What we know:
Rossmann fold
Amino acid sequence: MQLEPNKFPIDQQLEEITQSLSENSSLLIKAETGAGKTTRLPPYLVSKSSGKVLVLEPRRLAAKLSAQRCAQILDTKIGEVVGHHIRFDKVTSSQTRLLFITEGLFLSYLRRDTTLNEFSTIVLDEFHERSIHTDIALCLIRKLQATVRPDLKLVVMSATLDTTQLENYLCGAKLFNVPGRVFPIDIEYHDVEAQQAVLEILRDSRCPKNILVFLPGMGSIRTLQSQLLGNVPKDVEVLPLHSSLPKKEQNKAFTGDNRKIILSTNIAETSLTIPNITGVVDTGTERRASFAPWSGMPLLQLEKVSKASATQRAGRAGRVQEGLVFRTYKQTDFSQRISFTPPEIKRVELSHYILDLIELGNNPEELNWFEAPEEKNLAKALELLNILGALKDNKITELGKYLTHLPLHPRLGAMLFESTDHPRQSDILLAVCIINEGMVLSKQAKFYSDDEEEFCDICLQSDLIKSHHWRDDSLSEYRSHILDMKAYKRVMELYKSLSKRLKISSEISKEKSNISDLSFALLAGYPDRVAGKRKVIKKGKSQESYNFCMGRGGKLTANSSLSTTLPDFIIVLDALENPKANAAIGTSIVAASKITVTELENSNSQFISVVKESNFNEKKNTLALSSIKKYGNLILTTKTGTPVTPKGEVLAELMQTNWPWPFDDDLKFQEYNKRVSFLGQAGIDHNCPEFTGEMFELFIESSIEEETGYQDILKRGLVNLIKDQLAPQDQYVLDTETPLKITLTNGKTFNIEYSEEKPFIQARIQDLFGVKEHPTIANGQLPILFKLLSPANKAIQNASDLPSLWGASWDLLRNDLRPRYPKHYWPDDPANSNPIRMKKDVK
């Protein structure tokens, strides 16, 4: 197998690249537009070795067309030496040594052979697009190289990318910069509609050949195609290019001599080379993968392309000669755009990918990522997988393994798993397809209340689809004019695909949907999205809002058919967050399904719990015990027993739960525990228990006999209850060593407080005159702290050594107090004076 030499810029470096790869495990190729990296390097690698080469492409069309081109280069039929494998389309044979696959299939190859021994070299093409599949593949290939496959070669190819970080990740892999075949291009900014821009560039003499138009999706391609037909010369073909088109339609863009206007998505940005392009019209937008923040469902949102993408698109006009580019937006718009498109791993919901990694024996939190996912997104994904039951104790379950083989969000996969062998499985599958495609009702849909209706947005839409499909108006109260036909077609296509996988009929049911057949499956997929109704009074009017089982709240909007009936409990399937709104109603519920209390109680969900509560009526001196069944934070049922007068064990349990009830406070209880603690600090031998923890429970139990009632406890009092627990000798030690009162040597008696770290007395300073030695307790081991007060009972200072206070400190303190309280007695020698307050009382 020989390649025609020097046809593309990369040809001059092929030998050096191959030699470098033989000496190193990895290398990096940064190639400009038209360099020929995708169709020249892989066949060259095959021609120079006996190994098998696997090429990962981000797009299905690119994988197919690249394989076909490589087969032509190697002068072989597709499916022989060169093959491709994309979803639902595999063309290979035992001879295949160069295989192009879409990135999403890479993990299926790893499941089949965890070491990938079948391949000697793996090529990651178009790495700059940074799909999450590429990042996962890169991470796992590097792990293989570091463990069981040190012989595995890796080539990372990219167009526009800052390669410094990638070079470091690949441990200094050699970088090959390959120039492209680019002629000068004129870039102009025309803030006009795409149709006008195409017609203008078609007439411009600087663009004599084919025109490539970049559009965000198939819908805009079809719209522009219909606008152009009849408005361009008859010899100019207007051709769509999209992966969903038949192969024959796709090939028209690459063959024939007529001048062409090719309408494409960003697939033609770098993945494909279309011949004879001299003009590009760039609308500057693309459908970018993300996810709905609330539901986690994948979305394709219309976004502005990055500067790097716009540059790549423009480069397509300069492949064969000088070219012309019309951007249908302002230059100031371009200057404000981001430099590179954010990687998917930072912006998509991760649960399915994380589950795939765990199934293959990887811990996502420990993998050596090129760019790790956000910690909060990873944590949310793991939390959801545990809630659904796909993981248990960080290990994949039977459900988890089932989910990895479905091209669906784990929530929807859990619904299908739950519906296995159910007689209405087809209805559940249809519901899954509707949710996956973002519902099928047009924005103009209006709903009305019907007391006989079983309320479910999904049932309503299922029946509307059935009614339209079978042309049977009896299946739905609504007509098909509120049906979004594009969404309807997507739902039917997905249903057909999944029904084949599940081995059930590809025809949808002709029976009207039944909400009871669907509720159990919805609950399996959305166990954390149950909400209960509550009333909110606003501006004098009552409006219905809902509490979610895991906290926060929301309000049903007119987008949901349930907004006319407001069931007590619902499963919320889709909602919109408003972070600035009040937490209680900041979520707008747009799709939901009614669920009954009985269905929730019978669900065996991890969210079901039973809480025992006791409610004491102090006026009646009665206790009512309640059993509350809850779903998360939501109360399902409350069963209250007959009120009784609490006695014995019931009274003890009530006191432990509601302490210090029945007393107003437990200050005396705390004081006792402190006194016992001070005995221990002083090393005093005693057997007084400290009533904390289990000893507190024992104190309650010991205080209450079988017939002891509420009034008996109050009459006995807390102090006496404590004394009842002490032996006489222990009460004596407690009262002697940690007394509640003390009489000082000057004859004054004070209460000792035990509520702080040290026992203390609050006293006016004049009441301490005549005390020569500092008072202590606990056999002299604990000095009493005095909190000294002025004659006006205001705090002055603390004293733990009265002799020192009467000594060197006294003159300074007296000089401060005497001018403020001139009528009071301030002796020269307070230690030898009587505790007199006023001068007039001195004799």
